[in-house]
Design brief:
Blueprint lengths: L14 H11 L5 E7 L2 E7 L3 E7 L5 E8 L4 E6 L7 E7 L2 E11 L3 E11 L12 E4 L9 E7 L6 E9 L3 E7 L5 H7 L7 E4 L2 E4 L21 E11 L6 H18 L10 H14 L4 E4 L2 E4 L10 H18 L4 H7 L6 E2 L4 E2 L14 E3 H16 L3 H8 L2 H10 L7 E3 L5 E3 L12 H16 L2 H13 L11 H18 L2 H16 L1 E2 L16 E2 L8 E2 H18 L5 H17 L34 E2 L17 H10 E3 L5 E5 L5 E6 L2 E6 L6 E8 L8 E5 L9 E2 L3 E7 L2 E7 L1
Antiparallel strand pairs: 1-2, 2-3, 3-4, 4-9, 5-6, 6-7, 7-8, 8-15, 10-11, 11-12, 12-15, 13-14, 16-17, 18-19, 20-21, 21-22, 23-24, 25-26, 27-28, 28-31, 29-30, 30-35, 31-34, 32-35, 33-34
Helix pairs in contact: 3-13, 3-15, 4-16, 5-6, 5-7, 5-16, 7-8, 7-10, 10-11, 10-12, 11-12, 12-13, 12-14, 14-15, 14-16
Length: 741
């Protein structure tokens, strides 16, 4: 018996890898159909137990995609394809009937979309289905091809896989499973696609989630005669291998953009964030669970009637209230009241802000600080200082040297947690990936750039550069916490504008790629997730099981700066994905508020010491779950109360003299007054996406007649209309003329 020669980087293979090899090296099946895909050739072929799509590029290897896995005999026939289909197959077996459709196109990159629908002949239990992607060499051999995986699915985020085939040089491949299409399967089988897309080279792709096997197997079956989607895979191809991480990151985002534009996306709803912000401000002021007094000042509880006040919480809410006051034209008294106690967090001996007040209880380590906690309060102080707040400027500038010393001590590579008194490390790295807080350098760089803007001191600019430079080489592992990664991207763009060094523009794409790698680009309907939106949510940490409101709205704020600084010089797909993230955040974030969820979707218990959920209070839950676990297991976070103020001020726009507000879910629209009752509205670079535009009646006003036209003069018709609000869905890239009576 002879042994097969393997790529030395491959430790071993499963029988299914050998099955791929057998499908082309032995006469065990037949070719069913062929069609071209740009420079690629696609052959549909059967083997003993599968139906395949072999995608090849002459002299440069290829890819085998398993379209169906069968047991026993089966027949495979080609059906007449529709106009938008490259091919369609019908597969009959004792299992039932598979219908497999293939669609192709070129959206800057060639793509193949392979959709598998299955109708069981009997109530069907799925014990196991092998993965569906196998790189091939020039001889259709998966055992000899060399390459590596850059990114795979994390938890319940997007079912994606990004890899490079180097020898032969087939190029880069993005494999994207449209998990939304499989909701019926997940519900019927009581399974979840947790880490379902990944694998070990060269056996990659989608591992259809199946019930856990045991001595007494589960009995959750697919219903006989009812069609379900088993797979909706979009495979995007690029014919070379990127030379460095910056190009690889941008390519990932561009290829992800191809898949994004192909999938069906939910229609975001209008949300009244102004009313939510007004309620939140009232609850912050009047609810006894929201604040506590120390040293004669009011401080904010991190959770409902729970946890000690800390500087990150205080600054997060203060800055958001400040934004609300600017939008309203008058600062709420709470801003000054909450700012009055900030100085008590400052330690004059250390010359640094501390996390807790001096009287924190013995059950807390007063010297322990997470790395990002040192800098995020400085970021919000910087935002206030740049708006002319001298108290904030003073507190920032007398704390910043300690922040710089900390960065130097850790050589711009921060641990998870350390002692603020002597820098001794408490927790070096996260257990999930063995790394520290890898994106703290990004938020540190942003703080340094704020200091540079305030002082014009070149030293701060040098510090920002050093922090961003230290993160080079982290590739898709740069993300520790989503909002920090977003601020890192913003810092890179600002550095590029200040230095004119293109490497920082390119490095921003590394942060952007890592951010969207952690996104859930699908709409789950599993369990309680059916009651809320999760599309384009991002898990708060690289290993977190949930999406969090604080990281959600803070990321939107960072992206606002990124888009504003980058303008039209940003890659269009990067801009489109950021704008889409912000658009869906305005819709999705509404469901963090417990009054927006049915009572049965709320967790009856919260994390120890994190208080309780009060549905009457307009404070958000910390945690929503893509897999539909009960929401609010961590708690109701008052430190996320700033979300309502940020969303309200970013989405709503005033027009002097008009009887309405303009609500736009597309960030940064341009409004130009062109007449007494006329405004030109410009939406920027949404490519094929749509924006929601609503005209919302002001109190004690009548909405009256509103007309919206394209610049070419075409009259547009609203999708919703009432005496209080008129809503349009518009191309997110264009100019429109608004008039009213």
């Amino acid at each position: 018996m002879s042994t097969l020669a393997l790529n030395p980087d491959v430790a071993g293979v499963s029988p299914y890898v050998l099955g791929v090899r057998q499908a082309t090296h032995e006469d065990t099946g037949k070719s069913v159909a062929r069609f071209p895909l740009g420079d690629l050739d696609v052959e549909l072929r059967t083997s003993m137990d599968s139906v395949w799509a072999f995608v090849r590029r002459k002299g440069q290897g290829g890819l085998a995609l398993r379209a169906a896995y069968l047991t026993g005999e089966f027949t495979c026939t080609e059906l007449k394809a529709k106009a938008d289909e490259a091919a369609k197959l019908k597969i009959r077996s004792s299992l039932g009937e598979h219908i497999v459709t293939f669609r192709t196109g070129n959206d800057g990159f060639e793509y193949l979309r392979l959709t598998v629908r299955f109708t069981p002949a009997v109530p069907m239990l799925f014990p196991f289905v092998p993965r569906d992607v196998y790189p091939l060499d020039n001889n259709d051999d998966p055992l000899r091809v060399k390459g590596h995986v850059e990114a795979g699915q994390r938890g319940l985020n997007s079912g994606l896989l990004y890899f490079h085939a180097n020898e032969p040089r087939f190029g880069s491949v993005l494999y994207f499973q449209n998990l939304t299409a499989m909701n019926d399967y997940f519900r019927a089988t009581k399974t979840k696609p947790d880490g379902a897309v990944g694998g070990l080279w060269p056996e990659l792709g989608y591992l259809i989630p199946t019930p856990t096997q045991s001595g007494t197997p589960p009995t959750d079956a697919l219903e006989a005669g009812v069609e379900v989607t088993l797979s909706d895979a979009i495979v995007v191809f690029c014919h070379d291998v990127p030379p460095h991480e910056r190009e690889s990151a941008l390519r990932f985002v561009k290829m992800l953009g191809v898949a994004y534009r192909l999938i069906e996306r939910p229609d975001p709803a209008y949300r009244d964030w102004i009313e939510r912000a007004e309620r939140t401000l009232l609850d912050l002021d009047e609810a006894p669970e929201a604040t506590i007094k120390h040293y004669g000042h009011r401080y904010i509880h991190p959770y409902t009637a729970a946890e000690y006040p800390d500087i990150m919480v205080q600054m997060s809410v203060v800055e958001a209230i400040h934004e609300w006051g600017k939008w309203c034209g008058e600062a709420p008294p709470l801003e000054a009241e909450f700012k009055a106690g900030l100085e008590k967090f400052y330690d004059p001996k250390l010359k640094s802000l501390r996390r807790y007040l001096p009287n924190v209880g013995d059950d807390k380590d007063a010297d322990a600080v997470d790395s990002w906690y040192l800098y995020h309060p400085m970021l919000n102080l910087g935002l206030l200082a740049l708006d002319g707040d001298e108290q904030a400027r003073d507190l920032l500038m007398k704390s910043i040297e300690f922040g710089i010393n900390t960065a130097h001590h850790f050589k711009y590579k921060w641990p998870v947690q350390y002692k603020i008194t002597d820098f001794s490390v408490i927790t070096e790295s996260a257990g999930s990936d063995g790394r520290g807080q890898t994106d703290v350098g990004g938020i540190y760089a942003w703080v340094m750039l704020q200091a540079f803007e305030l002082t014009d001191d070149e030293r701060y600019l040098s510090e920002a550069r050093a922090a961003i430079d230290a993160a080079v080489g982290l590739r898709f592992n740069i993300n520790y916490q989503a909002n920090l990664t977003a601020w890192g991207a913003a810092a890179c763009i600002r550095l590029w504008r200040l230095t004119d060094e293109r490497v920082y523009l390119e490095q921003s794409y590394v942060y952007v790629a890592s951010f969207f790698h952690n996104a859930a680009i699908w709409e789950s309907e599993i369990d309680h997730a059916a009651h809320y939106r999760n599309f384009l949510g991002v898990t708060c940490l690289q290993d977190a099981p949930y999406m969090a409101i604080y990281e959600c709205f803070d990321s939107l704020s960072a992206f606002e700066h990124y888009l504003d600084d980058g303008g039209r010089d940003i890659d269009p797909t990067v801009r489109m994905l950021m704008l889409e993230y912000c658009k869906y955040a305005l819709d999705r974030a509404w469901f963090y508020y417990p009054d927006a969820l049915p009572a049965e979707a709320l967790s009856p218990k919260q994390r120890e010491a994190n208080g309780h959920i009060d549905r009457k209070l307009s404070f958000p839950l910390e945690d929503l779950y893509v897999d539909g676990q009960p929401a609010g297991q961590v708690g109701q976070e008052i430190y996320g109360a700033g979300a309502a103020f940020i969303f309200a001020t970013r989405a709503n726009h005033r027009v002097d003299g008009a009887p309405f507000l303009i609500f736009c879910d597309h960030l940064l629209p341009t409004l130009e007054r062109t007449g007494q009752r006329a405004v030109t509205i410009t939406l920027h670079d949404g490519e094929v996406c749509l924006a929601g535009l609503s005209f919302v009646r002001l109190k004690r006003h009548r909405l009256g007649k509103i007309e919206l036209k394209t610049i070419g003069g075409e009259v547009l018709h609203p999708t919703e209309s009432s005496s209080d609000r008129v809503t349009y869905k518009l191309p997110a890239n264009g100019r429109f003329l608004l008039t009213w009576e």
